[in-house]
Amino acid sequence: MNFSCSTGLDRVRRTSKRPAGTVPSGDAVDLSMGEPDFSAPVAVVDAMRSAVQDGYSHYGDLNGDPELRKEIARQSTLRSNQKVVPAQVSIGHGATGVLASLVLALVSPGDRVVIPEPTYSLYSDLVEMVGGQVIWVPLQSDLQLDVPAILSAARGAKLLILCNPGNPTGAVFPQEDLRAIGKGLQGSETVVVSDEAYSAFTYGADLTSAISVPELTERVVVVDTLSKSFALTGFRLGWSIAPPAIAAAISQVSRMIAGAPNAAVQRAAIVALRQGHSLYSNMQDEYSRRREFVVTHLSKVQGVSFEAPQGAFYAFFKHGVGATSDEVRLHLANAGVLLRSGSEYGASGEGYLRMSFAASLGEIAKGIDRIALGLGQMGVDDRPHSI
What we know:
The protein is an alpha/beta fold.
């Protein structure tokens, strides 16, 4: 039997630079993953256990647990100072599943989708899968939005997809830029998607959720998840908030793809959201310490330069080597530290590497030493850097 994949998957295989995933070998320091190194909050684990014992082991509401949707709507209303109702909330299999349902629901073959880059590469893969046309718009040199260029590219586009705080950049987009985008899109049919998975973790920068921007209200879809804020990546629970008609379309696709969301996980999610900041404040404090450590010590590596991250838990740095980012990444992997190639996140990421600081300070220190040594071997600096 000869096997042939779909044309959509073939497009993704030809265009995607997302790695398939690797397991660190030997004593390699893994600073490549956006995986929080904290344990699940005890209160959430207890709630999950209780939910299973209470019988939440069967199919639930196909649109998501009504109490969870009500809680998300309530908190979104408080966050945005605008009335959000449960009909605007769609529950999915992590932010990834929500984004997939959103793209399948809204993007037809040939539709244009504007994506400022460098950014999370899943967005373009999903658009390629359904036959949409990705329109890349480079970020500015400070990794902030080029609003005039975005508005120019967005004329007639179906979607504009933002990641705020940014993965891989760590940038936080200011309110005035979001308002300018909203004003510039008035009278258009372009839907703005704001992936705010890292919104819990910012460092001195004020994060404005797109849902709170009046100029975006009629067209914005905000995507969020338990994964980063609560260190619950394995729970695979995400949601979106959208105008009711868009929310209904997203939910319909989610039902077709995956059926009802996990019943017990949703009950645990209610507890997580209600306890909120108290469950992740320790993570905020620790990420802040790690960020300061990275800013201090990675900046001392000769040839390296970067914007101090304003949010998320990544340092996106220029490596300063006369080789491609992927060649440098492979060399550093052989030197015992795993990073991500900047080119994975868009053409403007060439020359950069992404380092996660969702790892212990000891691992981060070891990783920076190996980065310095590895880059030195490639001609940046003949002196090892030691912390």
